[in-house]
Design brief:
heterodimer; A: alpha/beta; B: Rossmann fold; OB fold (Dihydrolipoamide Acetyltransferase, E2P); 2 domains
């Protein structure tokens, strides 16, 4: 699972170094530039396949950058590198999801690594916003993180998700 | 005394610079690196002959970009460095014109691993530049030079300028920065498709930290 993606090539570099070729779920919390530039970077590289992508839409959806993202999603979908349901069909089938019930999830974090933010940044304190650093997690210095630096963190997800 | 860089012996270094004082300066830098300089006095009327000559006599080469001044050469340094690169011969572009001539250099940038501003030229940067070339010949790219398939969005086109220019954004690199490119960067068969709002893909070193370092290669249009 990837939650947002910082700018540049750090995330695709990291995935390549770790020989990670498939992402089960890509969550995009909102459409600010520093959250979706890296998603575009990830998809356009064609180095990974993504099973499910879920985007929390917001007011940025009308921007050129958002159009860039939907263009890439469409291209990736046509190339078979990404499976996602577009708009109406999914919404008709499941209805609009305004709120996901609180749930406990045990997720091993592989990026960012401890040395970058310190263990206190990942203490299991409840909401996703508590656990996710506000700075980009994909700075160049973390691209070569090794698995022995992995950190397990228990987090709760409790924010609304819409689907494109 | 030869240097062994990534298993390759480097001893003699050719130097092409139209300015004899600058040529002397680069000669001193090469000597500082314990290498043997082979300065080329010119004139250099033919690129192919120049390339073959240097490859026969030297193990690497350092070129200024503006070689046409004073009729020293009939080609640009960036073009020469690219030709050497394609022959897997280490070549460094060392010039004070990197920013001023960015549009003409850009076309050759995929084949110029080391572009050293003249004021930064010293024995370390020259040796590092030669190492970068040898690394790329072995498909070993630094993060700033590694090619990535990249989305390009055209923002504007200026066909009145000479050369014709177009302006793009790389959303996966920095969506807030517009990059000026010469239209002849695009293969002629695709140039008429360049207009505001269209998107295409290219191989770009999007690990680059500044837009001057970006190169564009292999273009994909829908």
């Amino acid at each position: 699972m990837v939650i947002d993606a910082g700018p540049g090539t750090a995330l695709p570099e990291f995935l390549t170094e770790e020989d990670i070729r498939k992402i089960d779920v890509l969550l995009i919390s909102h459409a600010d530039r520093d959250h979706i530039e890296g998603v575009i970077s990830l998809i356009e590289s064609q180095n990974v396949t993504i099973d499910v992508i879920r985007l929390n839409t917001d007011s940025m959806k009308g921007s050129k950058l958002w159009d860039d993202l939907t263009y890439e999603l469409d291209q990736a979908n046509r190339a078979g590198n990404l499976q996602f349901e577009v708009g109406d069909k999914f919404v008709r089938q499941f209805g609009r999801v305004d709120h996901v019930p609180k749930m406990d999830a045990h997720i091993p974090l592989i990026l960012p690594v401890i040395k970058e933010y310190g263990p206190e940044a990942f203490s299991p304190r409840g909401s996703a916003s508590d656990t996710a650093p506000t700075a980009s997690p994909c700075s160049r210095g973390v691209a070569g993180a090794s698995t022995d630096q992995q950190l397990n963190a228990k987090i709760q997800l409790s924010y609304p998700l819409n689907y494109i | 005394m030869p240097l062994i860089l990534a298993g390759r012996k480097i001893e003699r270094v050719g130097i092409a610079d139209n300015d004899r004082y600058a040529r002397q300066s680069v000669k001193s830098v090469v000597e500082d690196a314990d290498l043997t300089p082979l300065p080329e006095k010119g004139p250099l009327p033919d690129l192919d002959i120049f390339v073959k000559s240097v490859m026969r006599l030297a193990d690497a080469v350092i070129c200024e970009h503006r070689l046409r001044h004073g009729k020293y050469a009939r080609f640009d340094g960036a073009e020469a460095v690219a030709r050497f690169y394609k022959s897997c011969f280490p070549a460094v572009l060392c010039t004070a014109w990197a920013k001023a001539d960015a549009d003409t250099i850009r076309k050759y940038r995929p084949y110029i691993p080391a572009l050293i501003p003249a004021r930064d030229a010293d024995s370390d940067s020259i040796v590092r530049g030669i190492e970068l070339c040898i690394g790329e010949f072995r498909n070993q790219f630094t993060p700033g030079r590694k090619p990535w398939r990249t989305l390009v969005r055209v923002e504007d086109v200026d066909t009145d300028s000479v050369p014709a220019l177009f302006y793009v954004v790389l959303p996966g690199w920095n969506s807030g920065e517009i990059i000026r490119l010469p239209l002849d960067l695009i293969p002629p068969t695709f140039q008429d498709r360049i207009r505001p709002g269209i998107r295409f893909h290219s191989l770009v070193n999007k690990g680059a930290e500044s837009q001057e370092e970006l190169y564009f290669d292999k273009f994909e249009f829908d």
